[in-house]
Structures are given as structure tokens and as C-alpha cells.
Write a structure and sequence with these properties.
The chain has about 210 residues and is of the alpha/beta class. Strands 1-2-3-4-5-6 form a six-stranded parallel beta sheet, covered by helices on one side. β2, α2 and β3 form a beta-alpha-beta unit. α1 packs parallel to α2 and α2 packs parallel to α3. The radius of gyration is 18 Å and the shape is globular. It starts with a strand and ends in an 8-residue tail after the last helix.
Amino acid sequence: LAYLHIPFCHRVCPYCSFYKHTPGATPIGRFIDALGEEARRRIAEVEVKPRTIYLGGGTPSMLSPGHLRKLFGSLHEAMDFHTLDEVTLEANPATFDVAKAALFRELGVTRVSLGIQSFAPHVLATLGREHDPEQAAESVRILRDAGMAEVNIDLMFSIPGQGAGDWMETLERTVSLEPDHISAYNLTYEEDTEFFESLRRGEMREDE
């Protein structure tokens, strides 16, 4: 597995503890150049080549078409994509359209992992997500129409204000979209997040 971390997000979600920041402090173009060079060198050094590439974040799908082409150009130089079992790209439904979905396929992405998290509007607001339920559903259709081989949907539960009905509705709507895989994560309060600070102040509580 070759994992490439893309640490950029349009805005930082209050529950996320992964290394990330909004664009501005770090020139994205220079970062992509450096990441591509590091990937080429590291892959050239190993005897056993990766069978899977995973681009996580952050929000890899927010990269511009130019930056995506440059990064994947470096990866294609480093290895033969025909020998890979899978190329996964994490995506936010609010960060791509029909043209960019087609670009994902053109560049060799075989699996997109969609950070939908919920189909309840008030839960999405609590999580600080950029998309709405309809945009989330449409993103799955866009990927299917683009010929994406596999689509995964990420969901979260145990979110403040999320009732059993909200969770059931989210599960039913997710299943109706017929994704190839569903990942469901229990919310945890990680240090260095807004949610953790709210928990410490007593504004939120955990109930095992």
C-alpha cells in the first residue's frame, strides 16, 4: 500500500483530528511537486512495488484538475497502474462535478470513498459538512455515470443531536444508492478538535 496524504480542506470539520489545514499557508502547487517527487523516490527504492494506492486527507478531491494531473503524472512515472489492484481517492461530495469525476477515471482512480457521514441536514450542520443530502446522493450518481468501478460511502453515528430515526433514515438512503461498500464510524472525541474542547467544557457528553 502506498498512502498519500493530502492535508487540504476548504474548512476544518470540528470532529477531525487528522493533520489538515485550509489552503493559504502552504502553496498547494509546491506541495504537490514535493509529494510527487517523494512518491517517485520511495517507490523506486523498494523491491516490492505497491499493489494499492490510497489518497486520503484532508480532501484529495478538492485539488484542482491541474494539480491532480501533475500528482498522478508522477505516480504513473513511478509505477505501472496496470499492475495495481486498486487506486482509492477520498472525496467530499461538495468538491467535484461531472467533469472532475471523469478526470478521476482518466487518471486511473478505481475507487472513490465518499465522506457523506449523514443524510440528515441538522446532523451535517453539526459536523460542519459542506454538502447537503441531495448533493451527497447526486455525487454517487455522478461517479456511477463516470464509470467509477467502486464507490464507498462513509457514515458516522453517535453524533450529538442524532436520533435513532436520523440514523435509520441515513442507512436506508445509503443502501438505496447501492454503494459497493459502506463504512460506519462511531464518533470519538479526539484531542485538538473543536468537539473535544466542547466535551471538556461540558457542552457535549459521551455515553458509552
